Amino acid sequence: MEKVVLLYSGGLDTSIMIPWLKEHYRCEVIAMCADLGQEQELKGLKKKALLTGASKLYIEDLREEFITDFIYPTLRAGAVYEGSYLLGTSFARPLIAKRAVEIAHREHATAVAHGATGKGNDQVRFELTVMALDPDLRIIAPWKDPLWKLRSREECIAYAEKHNVPISQSRKRIYSEDRNIWHISHEGGVLENPGNEPPDTVYTLTGTVENAPDKADYVRIGFIKGTPVAVNGRKLVPVELLSSLNRLGAKHGIGHVDMVENRLVGIKSRGVYETPGGTILYAAHRELERLVLDRDTMHLKDSLAIRYAELVYYGQWFSILREALDAFVEVTQKNVTGTVRLKLYKGNVLPAGAWADRSLYLQDLASFTDTQLYDQKDATGFIRLFGLPMKVAGMVERKTGKKK
What we know:
Largest sheet: 5 strands, parallel
CATH topology of the largest domain: Rossmann fold
Number of helices: 13
CATH architecture of the largest domain: 3-Layer(aba) Sandwich
Distance between the termini: 84 Å
Helix content: 40-55%
Number of strands: 14
CATH class of the largest domain: Alpha Beta
Number of domains: 3
Strand content: 15-25%
Shape: elongated
């Protein structure tokens, strides 16, 4: 009997896919769930998968690898998709698919199956990873299979009820959600209409801004070569560090993003995201870079960060281009070592001080007083030469304009 490794979350889609795959492919289903920090969502998962028909379930603790090998490189690159999305689901998918390929090799499976729909981004992220890491593995995507007759979440719930598949999703709370240690995303339901404000009940990882404390908190984050290593002077391993910032950010309603984004497949979709700790880390990292990066490097890095974010969002993690951009980013981070202090208040992350041994900010130079390094009279000649092309263009325009 053919063995198929199913990327299993225990959610609605992948739960019903276990009996569906056995029925239509006559295969043994080996479920694999990546522990990326879903916490309580993992409770009872093994029993549920086996009762539903899986021959076994792998629950892989990938939290540290997720942070160090996927989150931190993206953070160091400063990559943000379309100005707002901190890529919480995007860089989780390649890691999940990578481990599925490894388990497929261990179990001598011939295929990997996933529950992503044919209208979303995750199908691309999963499938590109499998293609890159083992092009011989077959990919089964039920939502795109002609045998799959379910076309809505309501129909999937009905299928689960008919086949006695236990699910946690209800018709009242019908959002499609993805949670890990970096964020939680919400799509579907009332959120499909961009004219609807997200109900307060949508937010499950963080509090609302209205319920945030009236008193601010300050936090200090230490970095070594662009990688966060300490919170308030205490060195922490990656999981502890991000978890502590998540708790602090959630307390102050930090990290809410509500955006209409452009999916890779050409569809606009509306997503609501909660990324408390990640929002704090991005703000701190940016403030430290402001001190230590020269202008030209910083501006080029900002432009490449857009491309980096696209690669992550599009599922091209295991591409030569992303590896090449990482090499550039690594050089830019050589001096990004220091401490940043931030003020957290009512959903806001405000800079409150930054220190770096290799800071390029010289207080005397930045002041209005002349120094040995800078004589204000020198700016006259500089501006004259810098603006010479514009002056010549203006002279020509005036001369030819008179002729007209």
